[in-house]
Amino acid sequence: MKLAELLPDVVAAGSSSAQLSIRGLKDDSRYVESGDLFFAIKGLTVDGHDYAERAVEKGASAVVSSRDLSLAVPVFPVDNPLRVLGDAAARFYRDTSAALPLIGITGTNGKTTTAYLIESILKTAGKKVGVVGTVSYRYAGKEEPAKYTTPTPLILQPLLGRMTQAGCVAAVLEVSSHALQMGRVWGCSFDVAAFSQITQDHLDLHGDMESYFAAKKLLFERHLKKGGSAVINRDGPGGDRLIRSCQTQKLENILQVSLEDEEADVHLANGRFSLAGIEGQLVFRGAAYDFHCPMVGAFNAENLLLAAASSWAVGLQPQQIVDGLAGASAVPGRLELVKAEGEEGPTVFVDYAHTPDALRRALEVLRPLCRGRLITVFGCGGDRDRGKRPLMGNAVARGSDLAVVTSDNPRSESATQILADIEPGLVSEGCSRLETLHGAKGYLVEESRERAIALAIDAAGGDDVVLIAGKGHETYQILADGKIHFDDREQARRALQNRRRHP
Predict the structure, then answer these.
(1) Are 114 and 310 a contacting pair, CB within 8 Å?
(2) How far apart, in Å, are the Cα atoms of 28 and each of 24, 39, 46, 140?
(3) Distance CA 247, CA 253 (A)
(4) Distances (CA, A) of 482 to 204, 383, 419, 465, 477
(5) Which residue blocks in 58-152 are alpha helix, DSSP H?
(6) Dihedral sign for Cα atoms in the order 374, 379, 380, 386
């Protein structure tokens, strides 16, 4: 594309640079090729301005930056390079998000499950759908590993283009607060913006809950199409506040969902929960439809309502929605049941819960299903919000009988220190430190996640339930010296096969 076409708000049509031909867009100097437009972006740890000269040496034809630079090619300083990058990527890849209806889901917890449910609903209705989220990027029988929950524009825009070419009629995106604050969805216009809830997480990036909420709100304030639909869980923390904000914006279509409030646009009636799933009636503005969904737990009922309302907002009929919920499959790493062939023993679940609220919810689901003790294996990630660590301990102490505190993804931090940060939350709830798990109540500390999982499963009897929380679908562990293969589900199966049988 010509530079003036690519950057119409930056480059004047009659300027000397207007007809410069751009062959590609790059924001990483290592991958620059001749004829590329380089975007110098200041990130969390790396400043692209420091690499602009290197990009020019490798063949960049022009540079967009946030300040003036002395280079051998045209430089275009702008107030917000991230926005310019997102808009330029949309133009370069033929503005696929304008032609492909987008459903964006934000909130601390529930994004992945809600995306899977919407995917099931649309597929059951005979529609091709693309999904961009934490577990993978998938469309038309293809699946790509997810580098980010919400990828950068130079990954996202061509991905949406491939979905369009494959015949997808909609795309579902998990939109993280990181992505919103860092401008990754500039250039995307959403037909539906959905909100689950907001609880403490990511304060290492946002600083405080007010800033965290402000980042989530950007999906509705900045990226929702005119005439698009805001779908909001009014039961969850932050829901009522976001509804008021959307009303102040005078958004035309606000759909509220609730587990109990009959005034909500979509609500649940006569809900029943068991290991077989969720059933009852979905009520769409007074019209009730019987349904069954194999997802387990009341918190998944909130995700189910969000998915139903989002699907309704893009034109599906209630009966199509109910049919799609019935066929929903288990979400990898979300209360995923782990079994070992031929082994009778405890019931083991692996879940991605890595916030205090998500842990509390998971334990609340499992408690009534547990005839014996509820044992939790958990930790906290390094280089992330330290303030939530004792809160994770609080949640586990309140909801579990026994716990093993262990390493998660320590990254550059000391795993020992992370565990020490968690312990006060357990102790403040009256939970005592143990040397073994063969007791009625308490916790022990085992830094090795492999040994922690084995200890919990070995100590569990046939009536016990073991929850392994924090990593879910992840198949790696991030340590100070790099990433290693580690899958909680594999470790749990191995421990089940090796455990000694209890009488």
Answers:
(1) yes
(2) 12, 8, 10, 30
(3) 9
(4) 21, 14, 20, 32, 8
(5) 81-92, 96-99, 111-124
(6) positive
**Angstrom distances, CA of residue 81 to CA of 53, 212, 496:** 17, 22, 52
Q: Which residues contact 340 (CB under 8 A, 6 or more apart)?
A: 493, 496, 497
Contact yes or no for 278/271 (Cβ under 8 A):
yes
Provide the whole-model pTM: 0.84
Q: Which residues contact 451 (CB under 8 A, 6 or more apart)?
A: none
* Nearest Cα residue to 469 out of 382, 385, 380, 338: 380
Parallel, antiparallel, or unpaired: how do β-strands 374-378 and 347-351 relate? Answer: unpaired
Q: Which domains does the chain have, with CATH numbers?
A: 3-92 (3.40.1390.10), 96-326 (3.40.1190.10), 336-498 (3.90.190.20)
For residue 384, what are its two tokens? 């992330």
343 is written with which tokens?
Answer: 């082994």
Question: Between 356-366 and 389-399, two packed helices, what is the crossing angle to 10 degrees?
Answer: 10
Burial 30-51 (b: 16+ CB within 10 A, else e): eebeeebbbbbbeeeeeebbeb
User: The tokens of 131 are what?
Assistant: 């999904």
What are the helix (H) ranges across 182-259? 203-206, 209-221, 239-248
What is the C-alpha separation between 434 and 449, in angstroms, rounded? Answer: 17
H or E element, residue 272: strand 266-274
- Interatomic CA distance for residues 48 and 32, integer angstroms: 12
Which DSSP category does 198 fall into? -
Q: What does the DSSP assignment read for 320-377? A: HHHHHHHTPPPPTTSSEEE--TT----EEEEE---SHHHHHHHHHHHGGG-SS-EEEE
Render each residue's pLDDT in the chain as its tens digit; 503 residues. Answer: 999 999 999 998 889 999 999 999 999 999 999 999 999 999 878 999 999 999 999 999 999 999 999 999 999 999 999 999 999 999 999 876 677 999 999 998 899 999 999 999 999 999 999 999 999 999 999 999 998 899 999 999 999 999 999 999 999 999 999 899 989 999 999 999 999 998 866 656 667 888 989 999 999 999 999 999 999 999 988 999 999 999 999 999 999 999 989 999 999 999 998 878 999 999 999 999 999 999 988 889 999 999 999 999 999 999 999 999 999 987 888 889 898 766 678 999 999 999 998 899 899 989 988 899 999 999 999 998 899 999 999 999 999 999 999 999 999 999 999 999 999 999 999 999 999 887 778 999 999 999 999 999 999 998 999 999 999 999 999 999 999 999 999 999 999 998 755 44
Rg (CA), the chain: 24
Sign of the alpha-carbon torsion through 220, 223, 229, 233 = negative
Quick count: other Cβ atoms within 10 Å of Cβ 113?
A: 27
Q: Residue 24 belongs to what H/E stretch? A: strand 24-26
